């Protein structure tokens, strides 16, 4: 009896103590989202739908921007020795200078008192474009000696096209440093700026370093591209006949090798081209004419050395080629 009484009294005392503690603690309910968040989000979404996204702002108008530091970082990022004055000139386009002059005229500033001590990149762009075209032409002739002049011009035209140049320039960060009157920078302005950077590199480091720069950033764009995606050939069989005639090889004879589903909606034919009883190439197609054209393209790729299983391009650094020679000279 005494033990039960003590147990009940202890439990009652503990309950009274807990009630006193709980009276002193005030619990406040906290929601994950505020009440005004729903209306605010709805208004912002409606405004975005009506007005559209905000116009893009160049990096130079955003905080924490130091143009001189960014230009120096550009040279170190590419591991090239640029002259900073030439590199800054390469980024200045004529449209930017014209826009600045119009702004000063609008503000009533006389051109004589506050003249722009800046030079555009026209000369550097012309010099870089000429060097890039000559280097890429020589590289294509050295890498594909069997390729005719029309094919070389097509490859060089593809590598110097605005699509490839703007892709490379944007990935190198040239667009952020380009001084242009419009933003985003137009493709033609970005192409001329990239060529001006090549001209600045040629004047700063010489033709050898500039050639390696073009090899590393432009020639690599050939990886994964087919020859006839860059070079449009209307009559591949006629071109194949001309090439075989020059090499004094018997003319090709198309023959049907195999077919499947000839009576269905999606037929498939394989045509082989034989010359002097030897198989030159074979190609598939939905019709006999398409299969013959594809076989002619495959034969042309073999003649020009631009096959899919060709030896990969050598993009290794130049020091790796010179190191064994230096070691052999030192050992002797």
Describe the protein in words.
- By secondary structure, the protein is mainly alpha-helical.
- Helix content is 58%, strand content 7%.
- The chain has 15 helices and 3 strands.
- Strands 1-2-3 form a 3-stranded antiparallel β-sheet, covered by helices on one side.
- A hairpin with a 2-residue loop joins β2 (268-275) and β3 (278-285).
- α4 (84-90) runs antiparallel to α10 (187-205) and α6 (122-143) crosses α10.
- The longest helix has 23 residues, at 2-24.
- The protein starts with a helix and ends with a helix.
- The model is unreliable at 320-332 (pLDDT under 50).
Summarize the structure.
The chain is built from 15 helices and three strands.
- The number of distinct β-strands equals 3
Overall SS class: mainly alpha
Series of secondary-structure elements, N-terminal to C-terminal: HHHHHHHHHHHHHEEEHH
Please mark out the parts with pLDDT under 50 across 5 or more consecutive residues, or reply none: 320-332
DSSP helix fraction: 55-70%
Kindly report the spatial arrangement of strands forming the biggest sheet: 1-2-3
CA radius of gyration is 35 Å
What is the percentage of strand-forming residues? 5-15%
Shape: extended
Distance linking N and C termini = 110 Å
Helix count?
A: 15
Mean pLDDT: 84
Characterize the biggest β-sheet: 3 strands, antiparallel
